[in-house]
């Protein structure tokens, strides 16, 4: 069992008391939660039966079943809006993700994430909606361009060619502003997170390269344009934090508090053979991009 700041990860095993009972009833017996809260967790996608997500409250339990319920209380979701869909050529869909939206399913929810909401917006049949996946990922706090595919074969093709055929540019506001105007950042990042969920530069880690350029300065803050040459998790956040100019709003990596993480994926270019035609998209930050 783990529990921090409204997050709970509860696990147990059904015994004879739960044998033959409904899933929601069995969970109520195992954990100190109301059946109403349990049913909401089931609907959101935060309940697992034998390591598989289960969305059926009436599912009958057997003795020995492994049960898990993952909760995050008082969570504020940012709903999907039709204006976010910038381009579509089924089975491909490009959206301008808002800061705070989930790029993919989280442990505690599948409902309310972008694959779920985009599928509902498109009116995809359940079988097709279940195959809708992000081709690449953005952290929850990051906004910007994201490509989705509902064709598993095309998704595999895109991901196989992603490193060699895609070019991504980001905007970031940092504080304090760096002394340099432009910089090539070559710092390897280790594969493991620390207890706070942070990655770190490690000389034995995987090579990571970022091109950074200051395009505007305001007092002790600066707006950077960043070109990502490798795509490691949290790469931009780790690189800028290591250079003592963390992203504004990135408290995890030493940034000052702000209403949002000031990181936006503004440009995405994909060339052949990842797609039949070379394609490029741009998207400005949303209205809450204030610094």
UniProtKB/TrEMBL annotation:
InterPro entries: PsdUridine_synth_cat_dom_sf (IPR020103), PsdUridine_synth_RluA-like_CS (IPR006224), PsdUridine_synth_RsuA/RluA (IPR006145), RluA_PseudoU_synthase (IPR050188), S4_RNA-bd (IPR002942), S4_RNA-bd_sf (IPR036986). SMART domains: S4. The keyword Glycoprotein does not apply. Residues 21-78 form the RNA-binding S4 domain. The keyword RNA-binding applies. GO terms for molecular function: 23S rRNA pseudouridine(955/2504/2580) synthase activity; RNA binding. It comes from the Bacteria. Its EC number is 5.4.99.24. Keywords: Isomerase, RNA-binding. One of its GO terms (biological process) is enzyme-directed rRNA pseudouridine synthesis. Belongs to the pseudouridine synthase RluA family. This is 23S rRNA pseudouridine1911/1915/1917 synthase.
């Amino acid at each position: 069992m783990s529990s921090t700041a409204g997050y709970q990860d509860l696990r147990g095993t059904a015994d004879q008391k739960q044998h033959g009972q409904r899933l929601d009833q069995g969970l109520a017996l195992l954990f100190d939660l109301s059946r109403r809260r349990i049913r909401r967790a089931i609907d959101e996608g935060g309940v697992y039966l034998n390591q598989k997500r289960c969305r059926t409250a009436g599912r009958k339990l057997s003795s020995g079943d492994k049960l898990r319920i993952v909760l995050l209380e008082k969570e504020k979701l940012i709903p999907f809006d039709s204006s976010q869909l910038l381009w579509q050529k089924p089975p491909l869909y490009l959206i301008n993700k808002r800061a705070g939206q989930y790029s993919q399913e989280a442990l505690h929810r599948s409902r309310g994430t972008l694959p779920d909401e985009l599928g509902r917006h498109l009116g995809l049949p359940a079988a097709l909606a279940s195959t809708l996946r992000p081709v690449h990922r953005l952290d929850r706090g990051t906004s910007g361009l994201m490509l989705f595919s509902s064709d598993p074969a095309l998704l595999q093709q895109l991901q196989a060619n992603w490193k060699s055929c895609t070019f991504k540019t980001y905007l970031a506001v940092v504080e304090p502003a760096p002394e340099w105007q432009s910089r090539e950042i070559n710092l390897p990042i280790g594969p493991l997170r620390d207890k706070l969920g942070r990655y770190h530069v490690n000389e034995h880690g995987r090579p990571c390269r970022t091109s950074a350029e200051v395009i505007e300065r305001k007092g002790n803050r600066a707006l950077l344009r960043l070109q990502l040459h490798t795509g490691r998790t949290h790469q931009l956040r780790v690189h800028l934090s290591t250079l003592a100019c963390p992203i504004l709003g990135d408290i995890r990596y030493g940034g000052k508090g702000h209403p949002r993480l000031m990181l936006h994926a503004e440009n995405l270019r994909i060339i052949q053979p990842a797609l039949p035609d070379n394609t490029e998209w741009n998207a400005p930050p949303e209205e809450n991009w204030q610094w």
